[in-house]
Amino acid sequence: MRRDTGLFLILGYKLLRGTLALGAAAVLLGFGWSGRAAVLHAWADGLRHHFTSHWSSALAESFAGAVTRRNLVLAATALTLDGIVVLVEGWALWRGKRWGEWLVALSTAALVPFEAVEIWHHPRFGPVALLLGNLAVVLYLLQRVVRARAVNT
Length: 153
Prior knowledge:
The chain is mainly α. It is built from seven helices and no strands.
């Protein structure tokens, strides 16, 4: 199956996101295992005093309250699993696996209801852009699969 610009953009995003997720997981595990969770807690607490907007202050406050060794390990585990899945998706797209397009389309489509609920409760530009981007990816990949199936029959 030929790779076009849209597929390369999706592939690039998947590879970047997977790599960043695994890198973030490594950093969190490093802080958690070394017993330096207090360093992250102090950093988050310091952020609270340097931001003036309400959302960034609330984010820093939430982060400061959640930084424990257990939570760092849980977050690192979630990031590791996410990174692995995303990199498998990227690998499957790179190798031209038909199931890879289905995997990316289905895993992306699975997020749409959660994004829609988020927009319903807190309408903001970021979540709307994310929802539209994810819908575009799903529709694009499904269109590719349908087109390829029509050519093969």
